From TrEMBL:
Gene3D superfamilies: Winged helix-like DNA-binding domain superfamily/Winged helix DNA-binding domain (1.10.10.10)
SUPFAM superfamilies: Winged helix' DNA-binding domain
Organism of derivation: Flavivirga eckloniae
Span of domain HTH hxlR-type: 3-101
GO molecular function: DNA binding
Name recorded for this polypeptide: Transcriptional regulator
Alphabetically ordered keywords of this record: DNA-binding, Transcription, Transcription regulation
Organism phylogeny: Bacteria, Pseudomonadati, Bacteroidota, Flavobacteriia, Flavobacteriales
Top-level taxon of origin: Bacteria
Amino acid sequence: MSCGLSYAVELLNGRWKINVLWNLAKEVHRYGQMKRNIPGISEKMLTQRLRDLEKEGLIIRKDFKTIPPHVEYHLTDSGKELIPILEQMCRWGNRIREETNVSY
């Protein structure tokens, strides 16, 4: 892909990826917190999206190697760069939803 926009869209493509990133934009989370904060996402899908985003360099998985297991997720610097973009998309989406009176 020669266009950065195409690459960015491809990187963020996939159901729930933006939801996971948005959830991590405000604070570090453990798996259970994210599962509760993202209604409708299955455990399998959350696990897959976390793996995808880690592989793509947008989040970091920190395993504290304790019993019981303690794992936290947070945004990388590249992931943090997305926050203002996601905030703008949220504002835009809210405005368009109000203008078109369509809900998802």
